[in-house]
Amino acid sequence: MLLNWNYEKLKQITNGTNNINIKNFKVTGFSIDSRSINKGDLFCALKGKNHDGHDFLFQAYKKGASCFLLSDANKNIPNLPYIKVDNVLHALEKIAENVRKKNKARFIAITGSVGKTGTKEMLKLALGNIGKTFANEGNFNNHIGVPLSLSRVPDNTNFCILELGMNKFGEIKKLSNLVSPEIGIITAIENSHLEGLKTLKNIAKAKSEILDSIQKDGCFIYNADTNFSENLREKAENANIKTIISYGKSKKANIQLLNKTKVDNKSIIEARYFEEIITWKMPNLGDHWYINSLCILAIGKYFRINLNTLLTALEKFQLPKGRGNFLEIEKGLKKFYLIDESYNSNPASLSAALRQFRQMEISGNKIVILGDMKELGENSKNFHLNMKKCVEESYVDVVFTIGKFMKSLHQVLSSNIEKYHFEDISKLEKDIMKRVKSDDCILVKGSHSLQLYSLVKNIAGDKYDI
């Protein structure tokens, strides 16, 4: 059940004006996309660089919107109630602030260069066994997605998990102030978002803005293996955050990954949980996923959740789409495999994916499709060139590259590797489908903007819903 919104209350919170006076009128949800309206939603007509929500009012109306939040009442508007405000996004933020102020859930905010979504999904699974748990959908982690997600938090929620993204200074500060988390998490400081931040040190500084918003009697959890981890701990101590927990492979970590052993289709994970040695089972995944699982144990420690309850949940974890899903594909007489890492890519996550690929036992050829890694700034070309050693040491048989920067990598790869470069996804798809044979395995990895997920969808077919 959502907070009991009514028309008059929303008008008051947003400091807006209305076109119709209606008593006992209820809003049951919030949406910014006219294509995914639920009946009873308030449609927020945001203005962006490419689209103006005011142009989609009739589509929202047909989908079942109950009223509109808009800034331009001169547009052609369906015969529905609306609230007019100066700025729709600012009004949505006010609604989010109101929800946060009244909601009694325990709020958790997650940021980091890599591992945000995976950690969020693991945590959602684990806490979902204990109480009503809400998490922001997909990549709703920016200046629009976070206030929208907050506005949707049901009033009977026990745990609220919100992923926070950024590409410049000040964004994490604003979003974390809005969330006011009891627990703040930094999963990693790696080379990403360099277009806006230029250096790894600046990324660490921007991510650490979350520390200023964590409740003083709350908890900060961080990856002890990541860049600037000691700086993060020092900042957290200076911020007087009551509880600080670290996790990772480092001996300095409070929760340390010690070992993993593959047994059939599972891995047995061994870790030092503070002073105790524990083991549990998980699906066969890469080490970075097992490290993410340590973060869940850290949260459980702070919340005093039964350890076995968390370990049982981790055994059932399934990867989010586009983040390493292993697919068996049949095309005619061919039966081959595909690993879908199409959601995003940066040097750290690509290295991790290639390390995992190297460890896999495949009877056929190992094929990789590598797309550009975006938002790496003026050194983008060098970051791509620096992947040469990692690709060659993964012992892949065939390398397909796509994008301007991956072309640079293609040109320097060893002549011992069969390699092809494309600028067009459809041509790449046709070529790879001619070359792939039974028992081959294809790893697909690239930044989201390259839309390699469409290639995965075409190869995998309708059974794989992205």
Verbal overview:
The chain is α/β, with parallel strands linked by helices and 466 residues long. The protein has three domains: 5-86, MurE/MurF, N-terminal domain (Udp-n-acetylmuramoylalanyl-d-glutamate--2,6- Diaminopimelate Ligase, Chain: A, domain 1), CATH 3.40.1390; 103-315, UDP-N-acetylmuramoyl-L-alanine:D-glutamate ligase; 325-460, Mur ligase, C-terminal domain (Protein-Tyrosine Phosphatase, Chain A, Alpha-Beta Complex), CATH 3.90.190.20. 34% of the residues lie in helices and 24% in strands. The chain contains 17 helices and 22 strands. The longest helix is centred in the middle third of the chain and has 17 residues, at 287-303. The radius of gyration is 24 Å and the shape is globular.
**Strands of the biggest beta sheet: in what spatial order?**
9-10-8-11-12-13-14-15-16
Structural class: alpha/beta
Query: Would you identify the CATH H-level superfamily of the largest domain?
Result: Mur-like, catalytic domain
CATH architecture group name of the largest domain: 3-Layer(aba) Sandwich
The percentage of residues in β strands lies in: 15-25%
Q: What is the element layout, followed by pairings?
A:
Layout: E1 5-6, H1 7-14, E2 17-18, E3 26-27, E4 29-31, E5 41-44, H2 57-63, E6 67-70, E7 82-84, H3 88-102, E8 106-111, H4 116-128, E9 133-135, H5 145-151, E10 159-163, H6 171-179, E11 183-186, H7 194-197, H8 200-207, E12 219-223, H9 229-238, E13 243-248, E14 255-263, E15 266-273, E16 276-283, H10 287-303, H11 307-315, E17 325-331, E18 334-341, H12 347-359, E19 366-371, H13 380-385, H14 388-392, E20 398-402, H15 404-412, E21 418-422, H16 425-435, E22 441-445, H17 452-460
Parallel strand pairs: 4-5, 5-6, 6-7, 8-10, 8-11, 9-10, 11-12, 12-13, 13-14, 18-22, 19-20, 19-22, 20-21
Antiparallel strand pairs: 1-3, 2-7, 14-15, 15-16, 17-18
